[in-house]
Structures
1.
Amino acid sequence: MNSQNPVESPTNFIRNIINKDLEAGKHQSVQTRFPPEPNGYLHIGHAKSICLNFGTAELYKGKCCLRFDDTNPAKEDVEYVESIQEDVKWLGFGWSGAVRYSSNYFETFHQSAVELISKGLAYVCFLSSEEARVYRGTLKEPGKESPYRDTPVEKNLVLFEKMKKGELKEGECVLRAKIDMASSFMCMRDPTLYRIRFETHHQTADDWCIYPMYDFAHCIGDAVEGVTHSLCTLEFQDNRRLYDWVLEHLNAFNKPDRPHQYEFSRLNLEYTVMSKRKLQTLVEDKLVSGWDDPRMPTISGLRRRGYTPASIRDFADRIGISKVDSITDVALLETSIRDDLNVVAPRTMGVINPIKVIIENYAEDSIETLKAPIHPQNEGMGKREINFGRELYIDRADFEEVAPNGKYKRLALNKEVRLRNAYVINASRCEKDSNGNTTTVYCTYDADTLGKNPSDGRKVKGVIHFVEATTAVEAKFMLYDRLFIDANPGKSDNLESLINPNSCQSATGFVEPSMIEAEVEAAYQFEREGYFCRDNQSDSLVFNKTVGLRDTWNQ
Ligand code: ATP
Ligand code: MG
């Protein structure tokens, strides 16, 4: 058993618990689960839980099931069931066996409820929800016992059967556990186990009109599947008492190796809302283009933006697992993607805000093909061909008529600059439109400077990127930035007022001709501009900006 303990790998408090449990012989193997509610798309917070659950199982050569926690048919949809599976797979994880649904266990939940009723541990309660709220008491005051608490077992069995058969109205009554109305844990004050809902369920259609509550269903689902360590976020800390109570009072599940719940702190990210309800609001109020808007913290949004599975897994590793509530700096997520793309992304050139350059001493109608490295630090990635000719595009930001100061390293009149992967050019004059904006810069090039690096004795300070104009391909650049201007947008109910007005800007420019073949979602570094990927929803050539080359948010 000790051979299973991954003692060398970096640890966390959950692994410490698992190691102890394995050593003590409490469990022979490790089983976790990822239990999303299919009521929205997965977000980066879920990715933390996915990496923890699937990652821990992988580490111990155990199992991790994907279980849809589908006990609330009103809010759920198969669209979400499908997107969640796709997102988990895309992150690089596979679940053990078939996809599970809590609804697979509706019979078991029902039998368990009947067992509790038979043991005098559950009763049908007809208090209205308002009355039940008053009876529950407060954190300072104990609750009051329901007048239905002492209904005889036989009568409760009959009433519960009537609930199940649809003979009682929605909201008329609920099944409650009989625990302790004076408990200091509110969740132990005779919590609801089952309620009536006349809703068609996406998996079980109209088979059931009673649905179990999360606290009742979750622990039984874990026990049925053989989960050993049930990992959830801190807000369920109190509910652990109920988790244990339910399993301890059911004959089939009250065993030494029954599952136990452990809580870790959820991921909160600056400048990001994370609750599915708020994300849904953004989608419904059309503040974003959909769940996969590249500014959304959803897995599908991050994917469309150009994040890679490796970067998200790396981010999960960097934030680690603890019980301390905190807010993570978005720069950390951006560092994870930048570090990944710096190594893997092929280099290319794209001009986002083009102005024309005419090389007056270059032959007309002649195009030459130059070679440029696909990755400057990785020769093994080979070379690409780039075109050079008389007409080029450079970025508007790379030209000033008069250099603003001695440190200026771009193109200015009577100044030299090196074109990346090509020649040194010198600007002689420019043309402007009626608004005073430069339209064309006339230059000469030095044919002797090809392929020589900036230390070829020419004292050329700057290097700018370009594309050859007649062969370049037009492309749209989506320049995304953080969706919110406020570091903690979740605290506000008016999300619209906190949207960053510059979070989605676009520009039409030009890219190297080979980029017409760019695969969707594949990452590229447009040299000097940042990392981009081809949009997975557009037929035309659209590149989404994933992240800049450096962290410039606070500069
Ligand atoms: P939300 O509050 O965003 O609606 P949720 O907890 O209701 O999330 P579930 O579908 O129930 O969403 O979550 C599935 C799993 O993902 C749960 O185990 C939950 O604890 C975990 N999870 C959800 N949000 C986060 C987060 N921000 N950080 C870490 N784990 C999370
Ligand atoms: Mg939930």
Note: Residues 1-9 have pLDDT under 50 and may be disordered.
2.
Amino acid sequence: MRLSCNDLVSIDDLTDSDVDVLMKTAASFRDISSRQIKKVPTLRGRTIINFFMEPSTRTKTSFEIAGKRLSADVINISGSGSALEKGESFEDTARTIEAMSVDAVVLRHWSSGAAAKLADLIEPHVINGGDGLHQHPTQALLDLLTMRDHGGPLSGARVAIVGDISHSRVARSLIPLLVREKADVTVVAPPVLIPAELRQLGVSISYSLDEIIEDVDILYLLRVQKERLQENLFSAREYAGRYGLNRARWQRCSSECKILHPGPMNRGIEIDDWAANHIRNLAAEQVANGVAMRMAIFYLMIGAGEGG
Ligand code: CP
């Protein structure tokens, strides 16, 4: 089976059936990463370009590892060191990549809409590795896999997404996916960090972490971008005081509650050291699942059904 979409730009590109097969395929690929020889020949002869115009540790590395574990050739391009630095346009760089007969391009870009633009420009499959404030669909998928690992189906699970929703591409991908899964989603943030369109998505809104903290199964913390704190007239200290997950707040959570964070964590702002280091913080599992999920995406986009 292959994914129903040619490109993965938005979480809305995936049908429910796509999501289910991605979850199953990713779970089955996890075993490869625990072997001594972490490589299978599934995508031998395929070529993947990792085109990253913004900093990344988790997404970039895990896409590269995922491709290599499936034996694809993976080539990294970044803004620095490429002809973009010499003034080449995004369009010309895209057509140059296409001319090299590649199978898939993973794009991380600072501009919302860049992944859709690339998908319109070139024939190879495009996978959005995060574009501006728009979407980060593969992050949402690996998050869902991690949540399912710890509680089974998400139907009825109480998930609080805490932080800068307005500027979060992670939230824009994760919230619709969790709503599709019938999770009970509450977003928690200062009013200035909650976008108006959120009300149409069928989620609850809270301005107080303290009011909801005892009634959640999953606390999903978003990174607070330091530049946004100044823009929105509150300090990191004020944010940490009202919305940061610290030891006192964590001890009010249910004994089954889990913490997820897409990373990178700002210790001392949205999470303190004690909560960040807690055994029920699943950030490392999210990273491990990121490799498996990205293997599944490559396989179901450029491998399955072609003798892969
Ligand atoms: N979660 C995430 O996108 O992290 P990176 O910026 O390190 O890729």
Note: Residues 283-303 form the longest helix (21 residues).
